[in-house]
Write a structure and sequence with these properties.
Elements lengths: L6 E5 L14 E3 L9 E3 L1 H8 L4 H19 L10 H4 L2 E7 L3 H4 L2 H15 L3 E7 L23 E4 L4 H11 L7 E7 L2 H17 L4 E10 L12 H15 L4 E3 L4 H5 L18 H15 L4 E3 L7 H10 L30 H12 L22 H19 L2 H7 L1 H9 L6 H30 L11 H6 L7 H20 L8 H14 L1 H7 L5 E3 L13 E7 L6 H15 L4 E7 L8 H11 L2 E6 L1
Parallel strand pairs: 1-2, 1-4, 4-5, 6-7, 7-8, 9-10, 11-12, 12-13, 13-14
Antiparallel strand pairs: 3-8
Helix pairs in contact: 2-8, 5-10, 6-11, 11-12, 12-16, 13-16, 13-20, 18-19
Length: about 625
């Protein structure tokens, strides 16, 4: 998809709008006889609730098609930092039943606003066509038949820790009402988890639970995009449909406040890159949209908004149900292959957050390492997983040590959106409550780290290389990203360059530059995963017009023959002046004849003069 162009998506047999000239639109359909490429269990869901109004049926199809398109249309490369190269512009044409309602400008505006924010995409546009219909699902598919209400509570049930604890909270509240759990089923492992937990809850509270499921999966092809930012829209739409069938005017989303806020841990996760699945503004926008669909006030409640993950686990333990923790799955990468006994990857941000919370809550003996494919505490961690860990620990440190004024100053841009999610509260109150939440989270992260060391750091054994224990002992999370990146490059070049010149010395400085370039090019993909916030360039190869986009420049110097240490000194001093104080320079100095007499003084003189690191290779 070219930058600035929108992608056309045709659903339910809709046609391309007149103003569009689209040669290859994406066509989505789930109906039998229309070459279905999406499987949507709408008929089965309707049979389970007897009947749904046309407008609600349309909503379920719209949400399903948005989710399917979200998975089929790729974003930019994961390493792409620019907002424009990661977000998309999408135009949907969908045939619906209630054309009068969906044609209203206010309805489309609220739908588009909610989707743009939650997905981080540039634009959503909808063109609706009338004339759509589907067969009745059963003899009971009529307004004459309705589910018994029983004062039911409707909640999203993903099979994760928060939704499990929320369901238990509802069931143990002392209010004699049925808890109706809604699940979107997308993968066999997720389906099994949801089913097992729902059965466990029914055994604990006989006759008090009901589990409703809804399938929406791609048919005949793999997903090109797995961020699934639009999934919450589908999930909430399913829960809303059930609430309508039960004549309820509210539904519950149980997500801890830290996960919902999802404050960026790196600069590249600002704007679209940070997930906003259950962000307070997302909830408010979906609330406004569903109230429009209802024709009256509808409320999405988030009871865990002011709780951390550790708080949620402590709530689970206080209800004496911590043993269910082993059956709950928080992992965002369950689609990956794992060792047989593992149910979670152990490397994604959700797994990292859960394990830290388990240690902080004193539940690490239950949420034990065997549940995870990677036990980061005492196993080697590489690539993106290493970055996730260090970012998590660094952010916890920052939250624990920030005063409210510093917190507000550093997070102003993100707090603007948060404030939009609490329109009935004053700015001062919201900022204070969020700061207190984040500070408590930071203190819990520190407690978790101490607990990890207490349990796993054996003074009589070597610390496992590359493990989180080693990162803690070396205080890796206290280092700035550029410092960590430069140290990683130095480690690689210190090993690789002497081997490259073991038999033949470089013929000149250009030859030396070529070898450095080749070594770093071979490691580029891994370095981008491990240091995504740092952009680097080899000075001899970077064009002038792209220099401003680099954080680190690598300058190679070769001391030999007529190129004396004095000449190298002069050149390096000129480089520091050229790059100024805004860029870090890594000087890779190859000195096979040991022409530099005092290594320590040579390095210190330059590193004290400006933002640079000197690596001497022999």
């Amino acid at each position: 998809m070219t930058r600035g162009a929108s992608r056309m998506v045709l659903c339910n047999g809709a046609t391309v709008p007149r103003e569009r000239k689209e040669r290859q639109p994406l066509r989505l359909d789930y109906r039998e006889g229309y070459e279905p490429n999406v499987r949507i269990s709408l008929p089965d869901f309707v049979r389970g609730v007897y009947h749904l109004p046309d407008r609600v049926l349309d909503l379920l199809e719209i949400a399903s098609y948005v989710f399917a398109a979200d998975r089929m249309l790729p974003r930019g490369r994961r390493a792409a930092l620019e907002y424009e190269s990661w977000s998309r512009a999408l135009h949907f044409a969908i045939r619906v039943r209630d054309i009068d309602f969906w044609s209203r400008a206010e309805v489309q505006r609220k739908l588009e606003d909610a989707l743009c924010f939650v997905t981080g995409d540039k634009t959503y546009r909808f063109t609706f066509e009338g004339g759509h219909s589907t067969p009745l699902t059963s003899l009971f598919d009529s307004e004459s038949f309705r589910l018994p209400e029983h004062g039911s509570a409707v909640l999203l049930f993903s099979g994760g820790v928060d939704s499990l604890t929320g369901a238990l909270d509802q069931l143990g509240s002392g209010v004699a009402r049925r808890t109706c759990m809604v699940s979107h089923r997308s993968q066999p492992g997720t389906m099994r988890t949801q089913h097992q937990l729902a059965e466990a809850l029914e055994r604990l509270f006989p006759g008090r639970t009901a589990h409703y499921t809804f399938d929406c999966v791609l048919h005949g092809q793999r997903a090109a995009e797995e961020t699934q930012r639009s999934r919450v829209f589908l999930y909430v739409s399913i829960a809303y449909a059930l609430a309508c069938a039960l004549s309820q005017s509210e539904l519950f989303v149980y997500e801890n406040g830290m996960t919902a806020l999802n404050f960026a841990r790196r600069e590249d996760l600002l704007k679209a890159r940070a997930s906003r699945t259950t962000h307070p503004k997302t909830i408010r926008l979906l609330n406004d949209f569903l109230s429009e669909v209802s024709g009256h006030d509808f409320t999405i409640r988030s009871p865990f908004s002011w709780m951390t993950k550790t708080d949620v686990l402590q709530r689970l333990a206080s209800m004496k149900q911590e043993r269910l923790l082993t059956s709950a799955v928080s992992c965002s990468k369950t689609f990956q292959r794992m060792k047989r006994e593992a149910t979670q990857c152990g490397a994604c941000s959700q797994c990292v957050e859960r394990r830290f919370a388990a240690y902080a809550a004193g539940l690490d003996d239950i949420d034990e390492s065997g549940l995870y494919a990677l036990d980061f505490v005492d196993q080697e961690v590489r690539g993106e997983a290493r970055t996730v860990l260090l970012d998590f620990a660094r952010q916890g440190r920052d939250f624990a040590e920030s005063g409210v004024d510093q917190f507000y100053s550093e997070r102003t841009a993100e707090l603007v959106d948060v404030l939009d999610g609490f329109p009935s509260m004053s700015e001062q109150t919201v900022v204070q409550k969020i700061w207190e939440l984040c500070r408590r989270h930071g203190e819990q992260v520190l407690h978790a780290i101490r607990r990890m060391r207490e349990v796993h750091d054996n003074p009589y054994s070597a610390i496992p290389h590359g493990s989180f224990l080693e990162m803690v002992s070396e205080r890796e999370y206290l280092k700035e990203p550029i410092k960590r990146f430069v140290e990683a490059v130095c480690r690689k070049l210190t090993i690789a360059l002497p081997l490259a010149f073991q038999h033949n010395q470089p013929t000149n400085e250009n030859d030396f530059n070529d070898k450095v370039s080749a070594i770093l090019a071979s490691e580029k993909e891994e370095m981008e995963r491990e240091h995504p916030a740092v952009r680097f360039a080899l000075a001899h190869a970077v064009p002038d017009h792209s220099a401003r986009r680099s954080d680190v420049f690598i300058e190679s110097k070769y001391i030999r023959g007529g190129t004396t240490p004095a000449k190298v000194n002069e050149g390096m001093a000129a480089d520091l002046t050229k790059y100024g104080k805004q860029r870090h320079v890594l000087f890779v100095v190859y000195d096979p004849a040991r022409s530099i007499g005092d290594d320590l003084r040579f390095k210190k003189d330059f590193e004290n003069a400006g933002p640079c690191t000197v690596l001497l290779i022999r």
